[in-house]
Design a protein that fits this description.
The complex is a heterodimer of chains A (1218) and B (127). Chain A is α+β, with helices and mostly antiparallel strands. In chain A, 52% of the residues lie in helices and 20% in strands. Chain B is 43% helix and 19% strand. Chains A and B meet through helix 36 of A and helix 1 of B.
């Protein structure tokens, strides 16, 4: 239906009808019919254009008016044409009026087309185009007019040429059409050009047919002429017809300039006019006009072309630059190492460069068009929204570090830079994202930090340098070794810290590194900051960068100064001694204390003696015995064994059987060397070949000389004394080695001068006495002695020596000689002294502490090894008494504590736990002392328990203070107990009073009421009056009982108040009413001033009681004729109740006591105003139970005002406060 | 003799004066009254006579008013009988205990005989 109704639209209807008529024209070859159809079609088109015109605004009508004029001319042409055909049977001859109409029609059609052209361009170019068009039209028209003159000339070629003017005109129309072709979006936009094309095609066809002479009127060749008006008419009826000539690219409304319109008219109508004039008058005009038109046309075309070329050039340059830039940008994006991704504002990916493909594993084709969330890991899903928010707020996002997800699920650490792409209005239309993969950087950074931490913490110096030796890292250990801090060294050449004499090492080191070696333990020296050098052992490696190119050197340096030094000294010493020993003319040996065959060293001389090398001796422990001469073997072995067991020197002569079978006599002399504790360490001795001596005593001296050589090289002073008498009581010096002079400054001559010299001059005077005695004892003994004492240097200084002496005796025990040595032990003594000093310092510290410090042995009794002297002040026993009596501690323990403390000591000892206890000791004077005792087990370096050490603190004062406190607390507790009992009694009393007083009151008031009510018969007036007095006093008594109970409750902290909404105004009224009888008796005025009050929460009964008390007081204390005013108001969030009177007032001195219970003012007692002195106490308690206050202002003789302030919001916690 | 008998009120108090005062007032007001001198007697009488209302003193020998009230509430026959407690105590806790035991109302000593009668009237809906 829609499609059908579409066909019913006028323009479509016209199109269909026109088409049908055209078909009919072709099929029915009847000239009259054809004439009717042709004219009908043109008339219809004319009507359609006229109708269409009226439907539109006048401003847009101009092109369509011209079209209408064109069709009007076409109608004229058709009329002449058909008339000629119907009357003559052939088409009109050239140059007839038909040509005038036709020319007019086509030129106007062309003018219409020029509108299409003009609306496409503005300014000078448009004007030029219109000018070209107009000049072209004019030229064609003039050529057409001119053609007849050409025919007159009779040239066939020229005639044909001018006939082609038809085609030329049509070609112009085509050019115009192409130039001004609008987009074919609406029906008019298609139909108008279609009409022009139809005319063009038909004209061209007609020309060709006319020239060849094969044209017949009314045949199919006319169809185009018929379709053209149909198309134009339909276009004019189409609703969109007005838009056809609207400017689409320009900014101005389509309003052709006046010169343009003038030219157009001139061109369109000039030729037909001239032709008409010629036809009517039969006169011919000149061809000058045609020529002028041609010239104008050429000029205009050249100018227009120049303009076009210039513009085209400019355009092409601009385009080339733009193109180049785009290509560069694309290349940059594509070659970037960072992923560059652009997306639209919804996050859809629009572009994806090669780096992005590498980073995420997606090819561009896979992701373009997908959402960016593809790359966002689930835990970061909120990130994109947050980022977009920031961007929209105008922020640029730079180096935002986050994590994204690659195609294979990898997490990629990225640093993002995002910028928003905005349109002209500044709205975000897309995002461009640059993502840099920082996974490796992060990992490398972590690794680097770990390595740096290791390097820094290393106890070895770690140094990093560039290839040229510039230091780039220098750790703490390097600083510790060299004294140079990193700040001082980094950036400087490493050669600066190598000791000057070792700098040549560096090139060698580099060379080795470059050969690819890894240098380990390269020893060199470091120049330290303090000027010393440090021996270091270097491990050096070349650092290579990722590409394998050496980029630096790393070195680990270990400080080996101490090790080196020690090694060097040791080696030196050993070398010295060994070479010495091995040059001696006898064999030296060292045995371990084990006995025979346990040698650990033998000097090579043994080989010359026995033919067996030292190694053979060491390898075969039995060799010694094997080599012994069978006759000597038993004796020698026994003697060695004995001497070993006894720890005595060995001196004996025996025979070896050498390898070559010869018997060798030797003298073997050895001594046991002991360690500091006196245990045997090793035995050293020497074996001298005495074969010759044995044979020839003459060689003895030689041997002695050798001996002497040895002795005099030892680092001790050696001496020999010989006895003067047979019994060995008197000795004289026989020999002293020259070391005496070196060591003590005395000459050997001094020594030898006399026996007494040594004792008188060299021995330290303080040691002299006992040294002499020791020597006497030693000479009398078997074995000699070893003593330590001081000797004086010749320069007067004191040195410590150890003097070891042995006495050689003959078979009968007679002394042969004594020999010994003096060894300088000053150093050892000095260090012992230092230790002693240190100990005495600590001891004096310990002995000044205000407590007793002790050290106990780990025996059964824990007997004291050390006890600091403070013990005497504490217990009266001296340190000596403690150390001598192992049982003293047990004896002094207080008998009540003894068992407990001893058990605890045993337990902690057994379990090796620290001991802590507080107990009593009984001092010498019988005083009991409380002590705090703590001790702990001390272990040696081997972990074995050594002893216990601890301290005892006198805590008697503290314990007594605690005891006193405890006692006081006990008293306090008892006191509290009594108070509690009393309190209970009071409660019981209150309950009793409450019951026992109220019950009789009930009876009194009840029966009075019955009597007064006349239940017991009528009363006379006097009886009634008396009974009312009784009743009034019963009521007073009841009130008194109530008040007393109330006070009791308050004091017991049992006053409970209710909390419910209370109408304050009502309470005030009730109090006034209750007071009214009493007030009336005294002619008092009672006034109430109540504001409108907010709801108040409280205890209605208690508040009433409070107000009653205040009002009745006011009434009582106000003389007749006075005034009592009760006010209730809200002030500062509090309820303010006040009762003011004009009474006698309260003396100022008494105002402070007003609220004390049973207090009665002096004025009250003087004037005998009755009362109990409880009313105000109760009022105060009630006010405070409500969280409020009560105060009094009074002036004697003027009046008194009591004011109660209560908070509106009573905190429940305050309710109990009474 | 009226078809509807006057309501029966049990009054219990160990104080004879108060007992006869209350009894006098109630009898004058048209109630029948049975009197008990201690809690035990009050409970026995209540179960025997099934009164329409009981006025019990709180402090009585043998059984206290509270105990009697509880016993009345526990017994099928007397469960619905209104109980007025007479108390010389003023503590809120005493009042609470009374209601917890099942008392219908309480009157504080000292009271006026008329006030008590008004309460009885109200509970038995006799205006």
């Amino acid at each position: 239906v829609t499609r059908l109704s579409g066909l019913l639209r006028p323009w479509a209807l016209l199109l269909c009808a026109g088409g049908a008529a055209t078909v009919a024209y072709h099929l029915v070859r009847e000239p009259v019919f054809q004439a009717v159809v042709a004219l009908g079609i043109v008339v219809a088109a004319l009507v359609a254009i006229t109708v269409g015109l009226r439907a539109h605004r006048p401003a847009r009508r101009l092109p369509w008016i011209i079209l209408a004029a064109s069709q009007a001319a076409a109608l004229g042409s058709w009329i002449v044409w058909e008339h000629s055909i119907l009357t003559t049977g052939s088409s009109p001859s050239p140059g007839s009026f038909e040509d005038v109409f036709w020319l007019t029609s086509n030129l106007l059609l062309l003018a219409t087309a020029s509108f299409l052209l003009v609306r496409r361009q503005a300014g000078i170019a448009g004007l030029l185009d219109a000018g070209i068009l107009s000049a072209g039209i004019a030229l064609a028209a003039w050529l057409f007019v001119f053609s007849r003159h050409v025919e007159d000339v009779g040239s066939v070629g020229l005639s044909s040429g001018t006939t082609l003017t038809y085609a030329l005109l049509d070609a112009l129309m085509l050019a115009v059409l192409l130039r001004g072709m609008p987009s074919l979006r609406s029906a008019p936009a298609m139909l108008v050009p279609a009409a022009i094309v139809a005319v063009l095609a038909t004209d061209s066809l007609y020309n060709w047919l006319a020239v060849t002479g094969t044209y017949t009127p009314g045949a199919w060749a006319d169809l185009g002429w018929l379709l053209a008006p149909v198309f134009l008419g339909a276009a004019a009826l189409h609703p969109a017809m007005v838009t056809l000539f609207d400017r689409t690219s320009g900014h101005r409304e389509a309003s052709p300039s006046r010169p343009f319109l003038g030219l157009l008219l001139l061109a369109a109508l000039g030729a037909p006019l001239v032709m008409t004039v010629e036809l009517v008058t039969g006169r011919e005009t000149d061809s000058v006009i045609g020529l002028a038109c041609a010239v104008a046309l050429s000029v205009l075309v050249v100018v227009r072309l120049a303009l076009l070329i210039r513009r085209a050039e400019r355009l092409s340059v601009a385009l080339r630059i733009e193109d180049e830039r785009a290509r560069h940008l694309a290349a940059i994006v594509e070659s970037s190492n960072d992923a560059i991704i652009s997306m639209d504002s919804k996050g859809t990916i629009l572009s994806w460069n090669a780096a992005a493909a590498r980073m995420y594993g997606y090819e561009p084709a896979e992701v373009v068009g997908k959402p960016i969330t593809l790359l966002v890991p689930p835990e970061r899903s909120e990130d994109p929204d947050l980022l977009v928010e920031r961007l929209e707020a105008g922020e640029e996002i730079e180096s935002y570090e986050t994590v994204s997800l690659a195609k294979d699920g990898r997490r990629v650490q990225i640093s993002l830079s995002i910028s928003a792409i905005r349109d002209v209005q500044g709205k975000v239309v897309g995002l461009s994202t640059i993502a840099r993969d920082i996974t490796e950087r992060r990992r490398a950074e972590d690794a680097r930090q770990r390595l740096a931490a290791i390097a820094e913490a290393s106890s070895d110096a770690i140094i990093g340098t560039e290839l040229d030796g510039r230091v780039v890292s220098w750790n703490a250990a390097a600083e510790a070794v060299s004294g140079w801090s990193a700040a001082e060294i980094v950036g400087r050449n490493v050669a600066n810290v190598i000791a000057a004499e070792r700098r040549d090492d560096l090139p060698e080191l580099l060379a080795r590194l470059e050969r690819g070696e890894r240098v380990i333990s390269f020893d060199t020296q470091l120049a330290c900051k303090d000027g010393s050098t440090a021996e270091i052992s270097l491990s050096v490696a070349l650092v290579r960068d990722a590409a394998g190119v050496p980029s630096g050197i790393s070195a680990v340096a270990r400080d080996v100064t101490a090790t080196k030094e020690a090694d060097r000294k040791l080696q030196e010493a050993e070398k010295r001694y060994r070479s010495l020993v091995e040059q001696l003319p006898f064999a030296t040996y060292i045995d371990s204390p084990g006995g025979i065959g346990s040698s650990t060293y033998l000097s090579p001389q043994i080989e010359a003696m026995t033919g067996h090398a030292p190694q053979e001796w060491l390898d075969d422990p039995e060799l010694f015995q094997k080599l012994l001469h069978p006759d000597d073997r038993e004796r020698v072995v026994a003697e060695v064994q004995r001497a070993t067991d006894a720890g005595e020197p060995v001196l004996q002569e025996y025979r070896f059987v050498a390898r070559n079978g010869e018997t060798v006599w030797v003298r073997d002399s050895a001594v046991m060397v002991r360690d500091e504790d006196g245990n045997p360490a090793w035995r050293q001795g020497f074996v001298i070949d005495i074969t010759e001596t044995k044979g020839a005593e003459g060689r003895l001296r030689e041997a002695e000389a050798r001996y002497r050589t040895l002795v005099e090289q030892l680092p001790v002073i050696t001496y020999i004394d010989i006895p003067v008498d047979d019994r060995g009581e008197l000795w004289r010096p026989s020999y002293v080695s020259p070391q005496l002079t070196e060591t003590l400054g005395w000459t050997t001559d001094d020594w030898m001068s006399r026996t007494g010299f040594y004792y008188d001059t060299m021995v330290h005077p303080e040691d002299r006495e006992w040294v002499v005695a020791a020597h006497e004892r030693a000479f009398a003994s078997e074995s000699g002695h070893t003593i330590e004492h001081r000797l004086l240097h010749r320069d007067g200084s004191t040195r410590w020596f150890v003097d070891q002496m042995v006495i050689a005796r003959d078979e009968h025990g007679g002394p042969l000689w004594s020999q010994g040595y003096l060894l300088d032990i000053t150093e050892r003594k000095a260090s012992e002294e230092r230790i002693r000093l240190a100990e005495s310092r600590y001891r004096s510290l310990v002995e000044q502490l205000p407590l007793v410090v002790y050290i106990d042995a780990l025996d059964e009794d824990s007997s004291a090894i050390y006890m600091s002297p403070q013990i005497e002040a504490m217990l009266g026993y001296t340190v000596d008494e403690w150390l001598s009596d192992r049982e003293l501690f047990k004896k002094l323990l207080h008998e009540d504590d003894r068992e407990r403390v001893l058990a605890e000591i045993h337990r902690t000892q057994r379990e090796e736990l620290p001991f802590t206890a507080e107990y009593r000791l009984v001092g010498k004077d019988g005083r009991v002392v409380w002590v705090h005792d703590e001790d702990a087990l001390i272990r040696g370096e081997d972990g074995l328990p050594l002893y216990t050490q601890g301290f005892m603190l006198d805590i008697t004062n503290r314990v007594e203070a605690e005891r006193e406190l405890e006692r006081l607390l006990e008293v306090e507790r008892a006191h509290n107990e009594e108070l509690r009992e009393l309190d209970g009694l009071k409660d019981e009393f209150v309950a009793l009073v409450s019951h026992e007083l109220r019950t009789p009151l009930t009876s009194i008031r009840g029966y009075l009421e019955l009597v007064l009510d006349g239940e017991a018969g009528a009363l006379d007036e006097e009886q009634a009056r008396f009974l009312r007095v009784v009743e009034r006093n019963a009521i007073r008594l009841q009130g008194l009982v109530g008040d007393l109970l109330f006070i009791a409750q308050v004091e017991a902290g049992r006053l409970a108040i209710e909390s419910a909404p209370v109408d304050i105004a009502e309470i005030v009224d009730e109090s006034i009413e209750a007071a009214r009888p009493a007030a009336g008796e005294k002619q008092l005025e009672l006034a109430v001033e109540t504001d409108h009050l907010a709801a108040f929460c409280g205890d209605r009964g208690r508040l009433g009681q409070l107000l009653d008390n205040l009002v009745s007081n006011a009434v009582k204390f106000t003389p007749p004729g006075g005034r009592v005013t009760v006010r209730a108001a809200e002030a500062g969030g509090r309820l303010e109740l006040s009762v003011a009177d004009t009474g006698i007032g309260i003396p100022e001195l008494e105002q402070g006591q007003l609220f004390q219970r049973f207090f009665r003012s002096s004025t009250a007692t003087e004037q005998a105003i009755p009362g109990t002195g409880l009313g105000l106490t109760i009022a105060k308690a009630i006010a405070e139970a409500h969280g409020g206050t009560i105060r009094c202002e009074s002036a004697e003789g003027v009046g008194t005002t009591f004011t109660v302030e209560l908070p509106f919001d009573v905190d429940t916690s305050l309710e109990e406060a009474a | 003799v009226s078809a509807v008998r006057d309501p029966l009120v049990l009054v219990a108090d160990d104080d004879r004066d108060i007992l006869s005062l209350v009894a006098f007032r109630l009898e004058r007001s048209g109630y029948r009254v049975v009197q008990a001198h201690d809690g035990r007697e009050a409970l026995d009488l209540a179960l025997e006579e099934k009164p329409d209302l009981a006025v019990l003193d709180l402090m009585m020998p043998r059984l206290t008013g509270l105990e009697v009230t509880r016993a009345l509430r526990d017994d099928e026959r007397t469960r619905e009988v209104p109980v007025i407690l007479l108390t010389a105590r003023v503590q809120e806790s005493d009042v609470q205990a009374g209601f917890a035991a099942g008392a219908t109302a309480y009157v504080k000593k000292p009271f006026s005989p008329q006030e008590l009668r008004d309460r009885v009237d109200a509970l038995l809906e006799r205006a």
